[in-house]
Amino acid sequence: MTRAAIVAAALFAGCGAPAEPASPPPHVAAPPSSIAADPAPTSTPTASPVVAVRGPEPKGPASLALHVERGKRQPLSLVGTLDAIRAPIGDQGLDAWTELTLSVAGKPEKLYVQSSPPGLTLPFEVGARLSVEIDCRRGGWHRVCDGVFRDAARRTLMIVAGSGDDGAAPGWKVGRGAVTTSEVRPSKEKSVRHTHALALESEGARVSVMPHEWKRVLVHGRSFLVTGYEVVWEGERPPDARDHRSFAIVFEKPSAGP
pLDDT (tens digit, 9 = 90+) per residue, 190-231? Predict the structure, then answer.
């Protein structure tokens, strides 16, 4: 091969080979080979809701009565702060009652509540603001008191209707239920003492309660214990006997669960 041919072949080879890509300048970052995936979202722990815990309904003979000292003008309306709650200290007279001391315009007012069984918890605490309406004039021969206790937000805490008067229970309807017992009294004429259950209703919630038992009912998420009965005589009755009704309604203060 002549010298001219060798030079021509070398030039042809240099022109035909592909050029390698140049490295980027030092100040230009190379594009990433891949895009990193977004981190997985982490869940924020939320606090567990507070669950109202309520035990079984109180067992044992159910009763609830209200007393104020004689001589006080009736009806009685009080608004004040509950200064003290004294548990029963005996089994005779007012010593067997729970004593509530309400401070009304700086003056102490004492009210008395008697309840059973011991498992029943009254919906009061010292320092709470209460409004109380009491009337002890509706019992006829027997002095009994009707009363409504409300909290500072005017929500019902307790109703005691010793007279059985519907007017003593604002927001509630109370009616006679089925006969539960019938006691025949020895006499020449027919004489039977019938004891009835009661049906109570408030804002669409209904409950039927047997005499001398506590029964739970939920009214718009608020829990109440109710008790009551009605006595109706058939035929001849003893001189001091009369038809009568009694009932009570107690708000259950919920306790937080674990």
Answer: 999 999 999 999 999 999 999 999 999 999 999 999 999 999
Give the 3-state secondary structure of residue 83. strand
Global confidence as pTM:
0.77
Say if residue 44's pLDDT is above 80: no
> Residue 95 carries which DSSP code?
G
Report phi then psi at 199, rounded to 5.
-115, 125
Phi, psi for 5 (deg, rounded to 5): -65, -40
pLDDT at 65 over 60: yes
Residue 93, class by beta-carbon neighbours within 10 Å (0-12 exposed, 13-18 middle, 19+ buried)?
A: exposed
Rounded mean pLDDT of 60-89? Answer: 93
Q: Do 198 and 182 form a contact (C-beta atoms < 8 A)?
A: no
Q: Distance between CA atoms of 169 and 156, rounded to whole angstroms?
A: 10
Chain position carrying tokens 């009763």: 63
Q: From residue 222, how far is each of 5, 156, 157 by CA, in Å?
A: 110, 10, 10
Q: How far is residue 13 from each of residues 7, 21, 250, measured CA to CA in Å? A: 10, 19, 107
Do β-strands 215-219 and 173-184 pair in parallel, antiparallel, or remain unpaired?
unpaired
Tell whether omega for the bond before 75 is within 30 degrees of 0, i.e. cis: yes
